[in-house]
């Protein structure tokens, strides 16, 4: 793969991370939906992705994708746990959300009919895959 292909993959990963970061800020700050504990942990992985991948593009660092992979894997793990709670695979007794705070399993977790945890899993998977693609170099 050539450098342009790697930069395109990295650029797409950055755009996805930036849109996801802005979307959760919109959901929380404009729509007033308080994030649950697991959403906060997912944000802890997503926000740095938008910054690190963007700086990697700016500085033309072809190896910044390795940081994207690590952060995407961490975020995907939290999002998968969240999705497990949402669909009921993980029992509620291990649910990290408090009784007085927002729930990980109620209808507040839906945006346009799609569960937020599912959106997060897909987003982290896309960013991770694109970050891996950005690391591939053409062998001569």
UniProtKB/TrEMBL annotation:
<protein>
    <submittedName>
        <fullName>Disulfide bond formation-like protein</fullName>
    </submittedName>
</protein>
<dbReference type="GO" id="GO:0016020">
    <property type="term" value="C:membrane"/>
</dbReference>
<dbReference type="InterPro" id="IPR003752">
    <property type="entry name" value="DiS_bond_form_DsbB/BdbC"/>
</dbReference>
<dbReference type="Pfam" id="PF02600">
    <property type="entry name" value="DsbB"/>
</dbReference>
<keyword id="KW-0676">Redox-active center</keyword>
<comment type="similarity">
    <text>Belongs to the DsbB family. BdbC subfamily.</text>
</comment>
<feature type="transmembrane region" description="Helical">
    <location>
        <begin position="110"/>
        <end position="135"/>
    </location>
</feature>
<keyword id="KW-0812">Transmembrane</keyword>
<feature type="transmembrane region" description="Helical">
    <location>
        <begin position="9"/>
        <end position="28"/>
    </location>
</feature>
<keyword id="KW-1015">Disulfide bond</keyword>
<keyword id="KW-0249">Electron transport</keyword>
<keyword id="KW-0472">Membrane</keyword>
<dbReference type="GO" id="GO:0006457">
    <property type="term" value="P:protein folding"/>
</dbReference>
<keyword id="KW-0560">Oxidoreductase</keyword>
<feature type="transmembrane region" description="Helical">
    <location>
        <begin position="70"/>
        <end position="90"/>
    </location>
</feature>
<dbReference type="GO" id="GO:0015035">
    <property type="term" value="F:protein-disulfide reductase activity"/>
</dbReference>
<keyword id="KW-0813">Transport</keyword>
<keyword id="KW-1133">Transmembrane helix</keyword>
<dbReference type="InterPro" id="IPR023380">
    <property type="entry name" value="DsbB-like_sf"/>
</dbReference>
<keyword id="KW-0143">Chaperone</keyword>
<dbReference type="InterPro" id="IPR012187">
    <property type="entry name" value="Disulphide_bond_form_BdbC"/>
</dbReference>
<feature type="transmembrane region" description="Helical">
    <location>
        <begin position="40"/>
        <end position="58"/>
    </location>
</feature>
């Amino acid at each position: 793969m050539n450098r342009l292909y790697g930069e395109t993959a990295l650029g797409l990963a950055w755009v996805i991370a930036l849109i996801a970061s802005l979307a959760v800020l919109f959901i929380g700050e404009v729509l007033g939906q308080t994030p649950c504990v697991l959403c906060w942990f997912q944000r802890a992985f997503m926000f740095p992705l938008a910054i690190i991948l963007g700086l990697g593009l700016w500085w033309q660092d072809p190896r910044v994708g390795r940081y994207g992979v690590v952060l995407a894997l961490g975020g995907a793990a939290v999002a998968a746990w969240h999705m497990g709670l949402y669909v009921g695979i993980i029992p509620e007794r291990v649910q990290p959300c408090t009784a007085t705070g927002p729930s990980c399993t109620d209808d507040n977790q839906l945006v346009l009919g799609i569960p937020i945890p599912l959106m997060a899993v897909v987003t982290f998977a896309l960013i991770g895959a694109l970050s891996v693609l950005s690391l591939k170099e053409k062998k001569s």
